[in-house]
Design brief:
The protein is of the alpha/beta class and about 290 residues long. It has ten helices and nine strands. Helix 2 crosses helix 10 and helix 4 runs parallel beside helix 6. This is SGNH hydrolase-type esterase domain-containing protein.
Length: about 290
C-alpha cells in the first residue's frame, strides 16, 4: 500500500507539467440516455447535491457553478419525473471527509455550519417527503497530500484511512436522516493518467496510479454498500482501466484511458484535474440510470 501511495504522489507532481492541445472532436462523448418518466406517487420531490468541487460544478477560470456540471444534468433528468423538483446544492470546493463534518472549509470551522449539518437540517425540514441525494467525496483526502514537490506520505496513507472510516459514517448518517430517499454515490476518474505523456517514467507512473485508483474507488464502493446505495461508476465511464492504444488527433497514439482523461478533463491543457463540459456531461449520463425510482 505504501509503495502505491508513493507512486501516486509522484503522479500528482508529474501530471502537473503536462500541457497538450485538445480538440472538440476528441472531447465530445457520443451516447444516448433513456429516462423513464415515473408515476407521480413515486417521483422525488427534491434533489440534494453534496460533495466537493465536482458536485459544485467547478471550472478553472470560472469557479463553482452549482446549477451546472453533472448536478445540473442530473436535475434535468429528475425533472422528467417531477417538473417541479427543486435543487439544493451544498457542495463545497476542496471538501474532504473530515471537513464535511467539521465545517473547516465552507463552514467557518463551525461543525454546526458544516456541509453535513446543513444537509441534516434540510432533511429534517423535509422529513415527510422523499427525494434524491447525490454525493461525491474523498478525492481531496488524497490530493491534499501533494503540494508542488512536497509529498506527505503519512498524509497519503491517512487519506485512504479517512475515506475508509469516515465516508461510511457520513453515508450512514445521511441515510438515517432520510431512510425513504435515494442516495447515489459517485466514484472518481483518475486524472493522474496524464503522466503517461511525459515519456517512459511518466508511463510507469500512470500505470501505477491505476492500482491506487482501484483501491480508492473500492473504498467508496464499500462505504456505499453499508447503506445499499448504488454507485455511479465514473471511473468505468471514463474508461480508466482501458489500456488499448488508440490514435488521437491531439496527441497521437496513446492508451485509451490516457486519451479520455485528456479530453474529458482539463488535465492536459490547463493542468487542472476538473472535468470539462464534455466530462461533466459524461458524469451525469453515468448518474442518470441510478436516478430512476
Amino acid at each position: 500500500m505504501r509503495r502505491q501511495l508513493s507512486v501516486v504522489a509522484a503522479v500528482g507532481i508529474a501530471a502537473a507539467t503536462v500541457s497538450l492541445p485538445m480538440t472538440a472532436a476528441d472531447a465530445s462523448p457520443t451516447r444516448t440516455t433513456t429516462v423513464v418518466r415515473a408515476a407521480t406517487t413515486t417521483a422525488p420531490q427534491w434533489y440534494l447535491a453534496l460533495g466537493d468541487s465536482l458536485a459544485a460544478g467547478y471550472q478553472p477560470g470560472k469557479g463553482d457553478d452549482k446549477t451546472g456540471g453533472y448536478v445540473g444534468g442530473a436535475l434535468q433528468m429528475l425533472k422528467l419525473q417531477n417538473p417541479n423538483i427543486g435543487l439544493t446544492n451544498y457542495a463545497c470546493s476542496g471538501e474532504d471527509t473530515k471537513t464535511f463534518t467539521s465545517g473547516a472549509i465552507c463552514g467557518g470551522n463551525d461543525p454546526a455550519k458544516s456541509q453535513q449539518a446543513k444537509a441534516l437540517a434540510f432533511l429534517k425540514a423535509h422529513a415527510n417527503t422523499r427525494g434524491v441525494i447525490t454525493i461525491d467525496l474523498g478525492a481531496n483526502d488524497i490530493q491534499r497530500c501533494v503540494k508542488g514537490t512536497n509529498i506527505d506520505f503519512a498524509c497519503l496513507q491517512g487519506g485512504l484511512t479517512d475515506v475508509a472510516t469516515k465516508l461510511p459514517a457520513i453515508l450512514q448518517t445521511l441515510h438515517k436522516a432520510a431512510p425513504n430517499s435515494k442516495i447515489v454515490v459517485l466514484n472518481y476518474y483518475n486524472p493522474f493518467l496524464a503522466a503517461y505523456l511525459l515519456g517512459t517514467q511518466g508511463q510507469q507512473i500512470a500505470k501505477a496510479s491505476e492500482g491506487l485508483a482501484t483501491t480508492f474507488n473500492g473504498e467508496i464502493a464499500t462505504a456505499a454498500k453499508t447503506i445499499n446505495a448504488p454507485v455511479a461508476d465514473i471511473a468505468k465511464a471514463f474508461l480508466s482501466d482501458a489500456d488499448t492504444p488508440m490514435v488521437t488527433t491531439s496527441f497521437g497514439k496513446v492508451p485509451t484511458n490516457v486519451a479520455r482523461i485528456c479530453t474529458w478533463t482539463w488535465m492536459c491543457s490547463m493542468q487542472n484535474i476538473h472535468a470539462n463540459d464534455a466530462g461533466y456531461t459524461l458524469m451525469w449520463w453515468t448518474l442518470a440510470p441510478h436516478l430512476k425510482p
